[in-house]
């Protein structure tokens, strides 16, 4: 399995026979080098969205049309994109599982908000979500934008993920201290990869607090377009 950070909350995950682009915000992302776009999306089979905010939906529609691949996510948002933009979608809801070229993607809860912009302000875009992604002997928890939730207790017990991709930049999501608390209390991760940080000065610029709080866990600060193999 290869996990490649695209900056902010975007990832390219190669698992089983799938190449998943998670929240691919490339254009305008200050962390992402524009000349790496082709390499980032090459061979992608699906786009997976956690919620409707522009720093997550980003380039998803353009890539979906360019590569003729489906966008996967909460039913309300995906149905709207299908109707408005004519893309192919796989819409489902929390508790549901879809098979993506051999990988099992289960939608779980998150605690955030979800909207898309309009001339009249934010428009509801279905609920925010996280995911459990299983394949190749691993289960990844992709938190999406979230704060700590009591739901993380049953999510850890039921799915037992060994890898956590955690939003932890603060202000809009958990900060490093809160993400570390969640990881310690609810999960038994072997590997943690922070995200939704370093993008803007408003967000945390390193994961030192997270690393120090999780002895015995491998905390990997990702570098854009440098694959992590697990």
Gist of the model:
The protein has one domain: Metallo-beta-lactamase, Chain A (4-Layer Sandwich). It is 23% helix and 29% strand. It is built from seven helices and 16 strands.
List descriptors.
single chain; alpha/beta; 7-stranded mixed β-sheet; 230 residues; Metallo-beta-lactamase, Chain A
Structure description:
This protein has one domain (2-221): Metallo-beta-lactamase, Chain A (4-Layer Sandwich). The radius of gyration is 16 Å and the shape is globular. It contains seven helices and 16 strands. The N and C termini lie close together (6 Å). By secondary structure, it is of the alpha/beta class. The chain has a seven-stranded mixed beta sheet with strand order 6-5-4-3-2-1-16.
Write the layout of secondary structure elements.
Elements: E1 2-5, E2 11-15, E3 18-22, H1 37-41, E4 46-48, H2 54-57, H3 60-67, E5 71-74, H4 75-85, E6 89-92, E7 97-100, E8 103-109, E9 115-116, E10 123-124, E11 129-135, E12 138-142, H5 151-159, E13 163-167, H6 176-186, E14 191-195, H7 208-213, E15 218-219, E16 228-229
Parallel strand pairs: 3-4, 4-5, 5-6, 12-13, 13-14, 14-15
Antiparallel strand pairs: 1-2, 1-16, 2-3, 7-8, 8-11, 9-10, 11-12
